[in-house]
Amino acid sequence: MNEMKNDEVGKRIADLAKLLPGLMLTLTLFTQNMHAQTQPADSGASTDSYQTLYLTALTNEHDANQIQTDLRNMLPHAKLYYVPSQSALSIRGTPEEISLAQKIVSDLDRTRKIYRLTYTITETDSGKRLSQQRFSLIVASGSKTDFKQGSKVPLVTGSYNTAAPERENTQVQYQDIGFEIEASLEGYVDGVRLSSKIAESSVAEEKSGIGPQDPIFRQTTLEGTSTLTQGKPLVLGSLDIPGSTRHQEVEVVSELVR
Known about the structure:
Radius of gyration: 41 Å
Strand order of the largest sheet: 5-4-11-10
Helix content: 25-40%
Largest sheet: 4 strands, antiparallel
């Protein structure tokens, strides 16, 4: 009986020994498969592309920085760099990001419209025209133009003695006197939105009373925002000149140059 049991046990051990290599191979393949599934993707296999986008219309750095900011907001994962000497934007990203960047630059890189603004200042007295002045400015859409015409008037601000008591140095500051226009605008399909500041200053005949060399300056300022239709004049404002019967009226008209 013991011999039969020993033979049966030996047979089972032999059967297990035959199955063991197959089980080991199956376990090895299973382990390798699981290990391959948990490994990260090869970092060297990148789908990023590179492209250089050239700006042909908006070539100043301020405009280019605005386009670059727009691209950074729209494509936060792409890498961007602006080269001012070449007016070019370098971009690295996926093909989809580069395609969208090309469309954005194509939409924004456009020549600004140029306008001519003509300001007319008419002075009347009791309804009779005394004088009329015209000032023309060239302004690009989205920018500002500053026009000045006049003189610099010396204004004594102080004095001090040097080492020699008989000599005295005077400190002088110069004040701009005359006419000034600041104009900025944004162009639309059928007109422009104009922001303008008009200032006129002069030296009064009377003195301030503080000192014999201290003048009194007179100044008139007109500042505001208006919507203009091309070719149609618009009165920005009018005023009565104090101490007289004279009257001034300020008018402006815009024309599209290109």
